[in-house]
Amino acid sequence: MLRRMQFEQQLVFGTLVRRYKRFLADVQLADGSTITAVCPNTGSMRSCQAPGWRVALSQSDSATRKYRYTLEIVHNGVCWIGINTARTNRIAEEAIATGGVAELAGYAEILREKRYGLNSRIDLLLKRPGQDCYVEVKNVTLRTDDGALAFPDAVTERGRKHLEELTRMVQAGHRAVMLFVAQRSDGAAFRIAAEIDPAYADAFREALAAGVEAIAYAAEVTTEGVSLARRLPITVT
Length: 237
What we know:
By secondary structure, the protein is α/β, with parallel strands linked by helices. It has 2 domains: about 5-80, CATH 2.40.50.580; about 85-235, Trna Endonuclease, Chain: A, domain 1, CATH 3.40.1350. It has helices at about 90-95, 155-170, 200-210; strands at about 5, 10-20, 25-30, 35-40, 55-60, 70-75, 80, 110-115, 120-130, 130-140, 140-145, 150, 175-180, 190, 215-220, 225-230, 235. The protein has a 7-stranded mixed beta sheet with strand order 1-16-15-13-10-9-8. The protein has a 5-stranded mixed beta barrel with strand order 2-3-4-6-5. It has a 4-stranded mixed beta sheet with strand order 11-12-14-17. A hairpin with a 3-residue loop joins strand 2 and strand 3 (about 25-30).
């Protein structure tokens, strides 16, 4: 049975008023009060931030934090969507460690945030005798008008850099994988959003041609936690 990435505490529910300044969100709680929460997502969050949506937040008692609450998941009327990109690597790591990603099974060791390439850090480094596997993890929240789950939701120069670094690892004789984790369950397939970032789409095709692998999974997101549920077919255009 797959292990779920569990939220550390019971979440607090509310209604999204607005997201603004990229990293902030105003939420109305059940008691009618409105609080400002941290929104831990660097993307545009298009298709997952409509005012009036139900949301759930974690909370911290740290005296050093300016904002006590953190936006974790939002509900679009169909499913919960995980928007906290800081949790994506943990979701992927736990799925890999418990056999939930068949394509990445059989590695004896999983290392996090190891330096590699040209002054970069790889999200997950999988090791077994005779082979290192470099895994870059990307959080997916975008659902496009054609019903596909897609990445990126904003122009990402950093994302292109990661594709270039993975290509160098393949050229050096290692295995390299781009793992897309869609923290929502309302899509049947995955694709690159070339209409948003054509340069990333070009870099993605070049990386695949060089031997970089791409894997996409949809997650089951609940108010208790998140776990990878099923592999998504990838459309390359």
